[in-house]
Amino acid sequence: MDSENQVRIPNGGYLIQDEYSAQDHVITEIYPEVSSNFSVTTILNYCKEKMLNPYLRLLSIISLRPLINMQEYSPIVDFINCTYVVFSIFFMVLGYFLQYMSCFRRDRGFCYLVPNSNVFEEMRNSDKHIQERICYGSTLFSFILPSALHFVAYLHAIYVIRSSDDDQLPILMERVILASSNLSNGFVIQKKLMRILSLFITVSVIWMLMSTISITSLITEGNIEFKWIPIERSTISDNSLKILLVASILWRDMVEAIIISTYCLQSQLLISYLFFLRERLLQYAVDPLNWMRDVEEFKKMLHYLNNEVAISISIFTLVNISYALSGTLWLFKLDFVDRKTLPIVGISVLIILLWISISAIPFIQAIRLTNACRMVKEVGQQVRVMPFVHSDTPRSELDSVLLYTSSLKIHAKLYNNVITGSCFCFCIVVSCIVLLVLGMCHYLSF
Q1: Same-domain pairing of 320 and 380
Q2: Residue from 340, 417, 437 nearest 108 by CA
Q3: How far apart are CA 63 and CA 158, in angstroms?
Q4: Would you place residue 239 in the very low, low, confident or very high pLDDT band (cuts 50, 70, 90)?
Q5: Which residue, of 61, 80, 98, is where some domain finishes?
Q6: Is the Cβ–Cβ distance between 362 and 263 less than 8 Å?
Q7: How confident is the model at residue 393 (pLDDT cuts 50, 70, 90)?
Q8: What Å distances lie between residue 296 and 167, 370, 383, CA to CA?
Q9: CB environment 332-355: b (16+ within 10 A), e (fewer)
Q10: C-alpha angle 340/342/345, rounded to 5°?
């Protein structure tokens, strides 16, 4: 039996103890960072403990997975899980409501008038239409529609991940590790893959920290008015509302960052899976039929990513790009209605960069996945002309591989459209041209 038990040791390694040798206390000290002679089970368990399991617990925190997982059905556990989902949804809705009450816009911050203006002082002394002097503009486009789209994307992510028959991420990681174990440099590639996956999680954490800094800076800049709540409120209630507002905004950002990172992780695993399949076909004389079956399994996982997970990502990206463009136009004073809000230039630029970065990452991953799909479609021709590896393989089987790979229709999709690098670069070029023309026509000034 190949089953092994792991025990963590202080310097980052693991103690792997075979079940049959437990009586003799025969223990082998394992360091995955420096050695490459491990079984597939050992490496897979190491990857799960180091990266996958903590990330799955993070998904449970935002209600994408059950908070408590049990093999057997328990009414109490089921009630706790359902209650936590309801609480998460309620807190999300409360955050949308508090943002409207405080007139906090995600693209530019609090829409206050300039404190030194005479109009502001005059309206401060008036006890009528207090909120109108703060939340001017379109409530529908500034608050209702962005919040509704964000909420729909969150609900869809919960439905997709919870309604799937199995856990896509753990199964995908297992397949990738198994596919890479047969390569000559499989362990080195596995270490590189783990570093890339950890990088996506690290970037998500950094994004949330930078978002926290920007929100906290905006809130501590001045007084905050809450609609329907008297201005003359106590310090405790005022601080409580501010803390609740910050917590709800950070919860919203954390949910979005984790869902987008889930898409990026699955995309990266699919990219690596294709790379491993390609290398296995090029390095070894494998059975073409079994190799085609593996590609068919990849197509199922790609279909899940394109037609299930990508819907939430597309909605999030739509809202994020809108925030980035709206904040940019407002910073350049091209918003003909909101000319009275005083921007904090450094924080405003940070907010715009945050929205641009979280919008671009899914597109970059989709482009990389499409390029990997194109690479596999071309591998049939490479195999057909290789002189040594497949010299003993019948030409009819190689012709079948060539015909199969050339007819593959695999690519990454967002907004139900194929995402390629040329399209992405074209959009960037058009945006730069528009920005340059606006500057030439004196719509932009510094």
Answers
A1: yes
A2: 340
A3: 7
A4: confident
A5: 61
A6: yes
A7: confident
A8: 18, 16, 19
A9: eeeeeebeebebbeebbebbbebb
A10: 140
pLDDT in tens, 240-299: 888 999 999 999 999 999 999 999 999 999 999 999 999 888 888 888 889 999 999 999
> 413 has which bridge partners?
418
Determine the pLDDT at residue 369.
96
Q: Is residue 445 part of a domain?
A: no
What letter does residue 420 receive in the DSSP assignment? -
Instruction: Note whether 50 and 160 are same-domain residues.
Output: no
144 and 44 share one domain: no
Task: Indicate whether 112 and 206 sit together in one domain.
Answer: yes
Residue 119 and residue 265 in one domain: yes
The amino acid at residue 341 is T
pLDDT band at 339 (very low <50, low <70, confident <90, very high): low
Beta bridge partners of 30: 14
Average pLDDT value over all residues in the chain: 81
> pTM (2 decimals)?
0.84
Model confidence at 122, in pLDDT bands (50, 70, 90)?
very low
- 94 occurs within a structural domain: yes
- Can you state the angle between helices 235-283 and 310-331, rounded to 10 degrees? 120
Q: Does 118 fall in a domain?
A: yes
Is 26 a domain residue?
yes
Domain span holding position 42? 1-61
Looking at the predicted structure, is the pLDDT value of residue 71 above 60?
A: yes
